[in-house]
Design goal:
Belongs to the FtsA/MreB family. By secondary structure, the protein is an alpha/beta fold. It has three domains: 5-82 and 164-196 and 336-385, Nucleotidyltransferase, domain 5 (2-Layer Sandwich), CATH 3.30.420.40; 84-162, Dna Ligase, domain 1 (2-Layer Sandwich), CATH 3.30.1490.110; 199-331, 2-Layer Sandwich (Nucleotidyltransferase, domain 5), CATH 3.30.420.40. 38% of the residues lie in helices and 28% in strands. It contains eleven helices and 16 strands. The chain has helices at residues 50-68, 104-114, 164-177, 187-195, 198-203, 235-246, 250-259, 267-294, 317-325, 349-363, 372-385; strands at residues 5-11, 15-23, 29-38, 42-43, 46-47, 74-79, 84-94, 124-136, 139-141, 152-163, 180-186, 205-210, 215-221, 224-231, 305-308, 329-331. Strand 12 and strand 13 (215-221) form a beta hairpin. The longest helix has 28 residues, at 267-294. It is globular. The chain starts with a strand and ends with a helix. Mean pLDDT is 90; it is low at 366-380.
Amino acid sequence: MPRNIVHILDIGSKSVKALAAERKSDTGIHILGAAAVPAEGVRRGMVSNPDLLAKKIRMAVSEVERFSGIPFKEAYLTFGTPALGASKVRARVAVAQASGEVGTYDVERVMAQARPSSRDLQNREILDTFGLNYSVDSEMIMRDPLGMKGENLEAEVLFVTSLLKPLREMVSVVEEVGVAINDVIPAPLASARAILTPRQREAGALALDIGAETTDLAVMEENLPFSIAVFPFGGAHITNDIALGFQVGLDSAEEIKTTMRLPEENSKSKNKFQNIVEARLEDMFELVENHLKKIGRQGLLPGGVVLAGGSAKIVGIDEFSKNILRLPSGKGKFADLDTGHRIQDPVWATAVGAALLVLDKETASAKSIKSPSILRQKISAWLRSLIP
């Protein structure tokens, strides 16, 4: 029986992570190899120097190959930059069959009807498509309209998109290294899969992944993404302020940020540290709060806030999140991962989540909520055009 193995590339501003994973059970995965190397040539998740970034990708890929003994020739690429966006569209079509019964053809038509025009997509690419809810003759159906009867089918569809230029630049660098890209996975959705429990994804919860230079946000409800966002603000801003405030190097500042081991253990130093961290966190969580207010979910997510990323290690950040957002808050854990593995570290949330999403689709394709037609379009045209 063939092994169900996937390879993931997660390219962040601080590190380039490569991962080989295998399905362990119906929901869990086994890590065959993992590597993280310091990033160069990337800024806020976007390519700034292709040659430097390509070198780092090669290093990460080679290390995973050495650990796993499996060639790393193709991969799923995560993408989490401010270039990501999402929009909701409502569309309506007449049911095709004379009997009035809604079929697969009707669902495909209403999804196609909702798709943004070529003019709207002039500088963007659709990465993911989700049918959030459906109604037949104004009668609401949350998930599956198949088999219902009526004259008209209406759908609310969420499109996750990216600006083309930064996405193509990232794809080009990876392809140049010799790794073919199977698909591009939005980083906020990957993190949400890794750190939110099924119950949280159903009830409504916020996955907040605070990286070095970006913060990824995904609001999940009914096991579907309700909203996503990426802010150009991350833990490096806190580290930089600590370095300036305490006159230490960036590595020392990073350690101070996550351990609170101050150069001088006195009340003055503790107050300074607290003021620096709280000021930056207030800026960050204000962006999150404004987003929740904009989508009508401020204080209305029973599953609370789950934190990941390097800055999730900041002492007391979960309590800070609870006080600012007025929601239950905690630090994410990878329930579907081998226990005791070193990548239980929250910085691996996006890579682990991406592997889980891919394996979910491969082992339960019938339950997949992604539109197959959009996926085929995405894998074909412009990605293949980048191969020399």
